[in-house]
Input
Amino acid sequence: MTPRPPRKTARQLRADAYEDEWRALRNRSGRPKAARQKARALRPQECIRMLEEASRRTGDPRFVQALEAIKSYGFDKEPARTMSRVQREMFGSEDDGYLTQINYLHTRGKVEDGGRRRLSVREACEAVVAESGYPAPSFKAAVDRLRKRYMAR
Output
């Protein structure tokens, strides 16, 4: 007798479908490979040096104002950390939209077969990650990150 493959529950099948959808969304790109490569990032110190040089050579007050803004917000010292802080203060967390979707699916449910089926927090996270292509190294990592952030709210 050959052993039967392990049975999967409906929940496990849905989770697999969500993961397949996420992978398809992450791998789909109409751009050529060369266009998908990241451009070299401009370092903050290079940007400051370029603004100082432009200000010195042209005498344009807009370059001086740009330098003053960079220094007043603290981008000259720890630019990545400062940028994240300012972005959170101005626009909220980058995951707020995802967390709102998870909350809706968990409390109100997902429309299926003419009715609504309320999802568990984990399944709501899986659905949001699959439909949005949430950036993460793996599907499981994306689901775990959003689930932890949702539970911490």
